[in-house]
Design brief:
Blueprint: H1 28-33, H2 36-48, E1 59-61, E2 64-65, H3 68-76, E3 87-91, E4 97-100, E5 107-108, E6 131-132, E7 135-136, H4 139-147, E8 157-160, E9 165-168, E10 176-177, H5 182-187, H6 204-209, H7 214-218, E11 221-229, H8 232-243, H9 250-292, H10 303-306, H11 315-330, H12 333-336, H13 341-353, H14 355-361, H15 374-378, H16 381-385, H17 393-398, E12 408-413, E13 434-441, H18 443-448, E14 459-467, E15 474-476, E16 482-484, H19 485-497, E17 506-512, H20 514-520, H21 541-545, H22 562-582, E18 587-590, H23 596-619, E19 634-635
Parallel strand pairs: 1-3, 6-8, 11-13, 11-14, 14-17, 17-18, 18-19
Antiparallel strand pairs: 1-2, 3-4, 4-5, 6-7, 8-9, 9-10, 12-13, 15-16
Helix pairs in contact: 8-23, 9-11, 9-14
């Protein structure tokens, strides 16, 4: 196999460009047929043989076709373009910015290279009116300039150097460095914009004299995974625990403490509102009975006893309850708590343990705004309110959101460094060059700023999370309308699937909170959601009534449980919806967000989908005898 995986008639012929991305990457089947040393030899031949190299006449830079010498300079510089393929590119020789014609910058390469023609003003199809080195920049770049503190009023023109220093055209004074502010380097990858490295700052003279490219070999390609939907904050936090040596900074921990301490009083307020409602319902029923039964009015008895119900609390706790509800009504609960949380923690604990509140909590299915984690924190309210309170891992996972703003968050993942990933294929050299970035946007952030989606046109996979227990739950949207959570998830899913940014992207649906579905499915049917009105499973009476100890587990005797059938039905509904909208396949998997290994498995499955989609052009071709095994669209 002198040129890798080529049949005899194809030896000496150029490689098909649709296959260039998979050069030197062994397939699963190839690794099963050959030894590791043989696979390595074949892949090395495939990468290095002359026939498989990129041809200079297929690459245009700033409108000019490259010569062989220019291509050698471009590929041999300390920081060359990653994954260079035939096409039309623009190159800013002063700053080193590089991108495809009509698109924003893709990366920053070595500056001052003598390649291509002159940079055109409309090279990146910008529409901001602001020129940088003669090129009109895009909206994403304008946002980064503003974050860097660059004054952009009046649409000025700038010169930007490779080291990040900038100045206005016609002036000699350097105004600053755009890379000095940490927020610029933090948000540039999120906005799909590049940041420089050491090699990018070397001049073209140094690049030409340097035959090695160590920075390029060490540079990793970022594969972005977008995480949206219900329960995404818990999945991102699990990813941080799994893939980061220090998952959360001190500032992030302080933010999470504040979130937890403030939310305790929100949970309590929801319970107190429910208590008042339940108490009023019981009293109204009693009054109705007394009105319908005149003989009861003549009976001796205390009116006070008639006004006491299982939802009644003692006057001392009633006064505290009224104070909290008043603070919630006027909207200044944040101003009072958690500053006063230590002082009132014993009262909160006493109120939480009161029989009336416990009776209210037993009817939590009727309290749509009470999260399942409420009891976890209320049981420990005194400890949480202490000054020396330290977060444990479960506190972080159960906390609502990630930061006080609960907007955009991300974490980087490098699979070869993960000890838990026992299935990492060390024989695949390409995988060690990849770095994955999991980016999470909250549903609130999507509703308030849908323009963010345009910044993620280079995302490789959209991971959409749906809580299967949401089918009978409701919440108040930004317009004050009470909506079904599952229906809202479907609407968000539809908007993403139809968004132009994700037109050709793969989607992975993660079904979460299966444990809560098991608890409620016997009492609250799936048909409570109008979208699932056609769900009519054939199950035994034991499964419906929940009388069997094995009703929530599959077995060889009973088959699938009611909860399993319901979850599968939900997944199928989303698959059919996705196919009707896009005529493409939706990948589906289950995940327990509180189980670290389950989350890691889901992320690994997402990685396999990305790898499989990359291999498709090669291994689905009729010109090769090798073929991969497509991962199932359902993963358990």
């Amino acid at each position: 196999m002198p040129e890798g995986r080529k049949c005899l008639p194809c030896i000496g012929r150029p490689v098909a460009e649709s296959r260039r991305g998979a050069l030197g990457r062994g397939s699963r089947l190839l690794r099963r047929l050959l030894s590791a040393a043989e696979v390595d030899l074949v892949m090395r031949s495939e990468r290095q043989c002359a026939a498989n190299q990129l041809r200079p006449e297929d690459v245009y830079v700033n409108g000019a076709r490259l010569a062989q010498e220019e291509l050698a300079v471009l590929q041999g510089c300390p920081c060359p373009p990653s994954r260079l393929r035939p096409g039309f590119y623009w190159y800013d020789k002063v700053s080193g910015f590089w991108g495809k014609e009509g698109h924003k910058p893709h990366c920053i390469i070595s500056p001052n290279l003598s390649v291509g023609g002159n940079l055109d003003e409309k090279a990146s199809n910008g529409n901001t009116g602001i020129l940088v080195n003669g090129r009109e920049i895009t909206k994403s770049e304008l946002q980064i300039l503003k974050l860097a503190g660059v004054q952009c009023a009046g649409k000025p023109h700038f010169w930007l150097n490779a080291d990040g220093t900038y100045q206005e055209e016609g002036q000699k004074t350097v105004k600053g460095r755009i890379w000095d502010k940490p927020i610029v380097k933090l948000l540039s990858p999120v906005l799909s914009l590049p940041t420089p490295n050491k090699a990018a700052n070397q001049s073209g003279v140094e690049a030409a004299s340097s035959g090695s490219r160590p920075e390029y070999l060490e540079q990793r390609t970022i594969q972005k995974l977008l995480l949206v939907g219900s329960g995404t904050s818990t999945i991102l936090k699990q990813a941080k625990f799994s893939y980061k040596s220090k998952p959360f900074s001190m500032d992030e921990c302080e933010d999470l403490k504040l979130i937890i301490q403030s939310n305790i009083y929100r949970y309590l307020g929801t319970l107190l509102e429910g208590r008042e409602r339940f108490e009023e319902e019981v009293l109204a029923d009693r009054r109705k009975l007394n009105k319908d039964d005149p003989s009861s009015s003549g009976h001796s008895g205390s009116e006070f006893c008639a006004e006491v119900t299982e939802y009644s609390i003692v006057p001392r706790l009633k006064a505290f309850s009224d104070w909290i509800l008043k603070a919630m009504a006027i909207g200044n609960l944040e101003d009072i708590f958690p500053a006063a949380s230590r002082e009132y923690a014993p009262l909160v604990e006493e109120l939480w343990k009161d029989p009336a509140i416990q009776a209210t909590y037993r009817r939590r299915s009727e309290l749509p705004f009470l999260p399942s984690a409420a009891s976890y924190f209320l049981d420990r309210v005194v400890d949480i309110s202490r000054t020396e309170y330290e977060l444990c891992d479960m506190d972080i996972l159960y906390a609502d959101g990630i930061t006080s703003s609960d907007g955009l968050a991300s974490t980087d993942i490098s699979f070869p460094q993960l000890a838990l990933d026992v299935r990492v294929d060390e024989s695949d050299p390409h995988d060690t060059m990849l770095r994955y970035q999991l980016i999470r946007i909250s549903n609130k952030g999507l509703r308030e700023n849908s323009k963010w989606l345009q910044m993620f046109d280079d995302v490789r996979l959209v991971i959409f999370c749906v809580a299967v227990s949401d089918y009978d739950e409701y919440h108040e949207d930004v317009n004050g309308t009470i909506v079904n959570k599952m229906v809202e998830s479907r609407q968000l899913f539809e908007s993403l699937a139809l968004h132009l940014t994700f037109e050709q992207m793969d989607f992975l649906l993660l079904l979460t909170k299966f444990d809560l579905l098991e608890q409620k499915i016997g009492k609250s049917p799936l048909t409570a959601c109008d979208w699932f009105s056609e769900f009519t499973p054939l199950v035994s009476r034991n499964l419906i009534n929940g009388s069997s100890s094995r009703s929530t587990r599959s077995s060889s005797n009973t088959g699938a449980s009611l909860a399993q059938m319901a979850a599968h039905y939900i997944g199928t509904k989303f698959k059919r919806l996705f196919h009707s909208l896009t005529e493409r396949k939706l990948y589906v998997s289950y995940v327990n967000a509180l189980d670290q290994e389950s989350v890691c498995s889901a992320i690994r499955y997402g990685r396999e989908i990305v790898k499989w989609e990359e291999e498709k052009p090669v291994f689905n071709s009729s010109e090769t005898v090798y073929s991969g095994e497509e991962p199932s669209s359902y993963s358990h």
